[in-house]
Amino acid sequence: MSRLLFILSVLFLSGHVRAQDDLGYPLSKFLEACIMERESMASGDLDGIASSIAQFRKLLIEDFKSHSFVTKEPMDTSALEGHLLFSADYLDQYILDEMEKETVSVATDSHIIRNATKGAIIVLVTHCLIPAQQTCVYEFDGTMDMQLLVVCERAQLLGVTIDVPSEEFHYECPNDEPNGIRYHSWSLNDEGKVQLSISNPCEEAVSVVVASYRQ
Question: What is the mean pLDDT of residues 172-178?
């Protein structure tokens, strides 16, 4: 019995933070929409773009910056101009711009409008610009159970590190896949500030979307 109690106590002390590498709902659906958008925009696939909009609309997306997301060096939002944004509104505007050029049919636009219903699952989202060969650090309030997703506008290497100092939690996402996608899920015993570091090893600045779901 004493041996069993000893094992249980060790598991308790070492397990005050549980981390896992699977991405659950709803961020898995958000990721699907991001991948679809990235591929469709690259190939000019308008049906794919319309499907991306419909997928984004199934989620209730709120601005992460209104939920404590901050950076020590606030970014000028105009810096994101010309970069890909993972957003239904961004894609809607893209479709409208293409319609003005008479390259998109009204039928495609009607398909988007029919699917423009908001979902009920809240996903916190913000876009950031990561300069070439630099690391940007952000901070936000964390909850005990969280999922975090970072998606780059293009497939490339991307360094992502997550720290929760109050829980002595440190996690560095594997950076061996040049897909521009990093995510992690974890559980804490208590709420605490989360520090997120994103590194861009490439020679051009890139936009990334940071998405979070907290239970």
Answer: 93
